[in-house]
Amino acid sequence: MNLPAISISTTFNYKIPIEEQFARIASAGFPYVSFGANEEHSGILSPSGRQRIKECLQQYRLQLDTIHGPRMDLPDSIKQIHMIADAAAELEVPVVFENPQGWNLESPDLAISVLPCIVNHITNPPISR
Fold first, then answer.
1. Overall pTM surpassing 0.90 (yes/no)
2. pLDDT tens for each residue of 94-110
3. What is the CATH number of the domain that holds 111?
4. How far is CA 121 from CA 19, 58, 85, 87, in A?
5. Integer-rounded Cα radius of gyration of the chain
6. Based on the structure, what is the number of domains in the chain?
């Protein structure tokens, strides 16, 4: 029987630098880590940040299993989710989590119309895997 693996999110304390979080997560025995939506904390949107993430994952023998995307109700949400999808493809992260938090539920058709665009971009990112 395969036992489930447990992941922990970096949201436990954004005051702790991501490198230190990796060390703590690994020493606690977690095999997987999930990034919260604070891209400034993880550095996931910059090439140098992604390189640092790759090095830390390798150093601590961790796997990044999920990236939490940005809120979808902000003016630059679509651009942000595209950037997160690109980062997920580069880092070989299998899941990007999106929460329709804050969407105008009085106009659910508008919110739902955005979803196919997001799914298409995530499943067919512009960079090669």
1. no
2. 888 876 665 555 555 65
3. 3.20.20.150
4. 29, 27, 7, 12
5. 15
6. 1
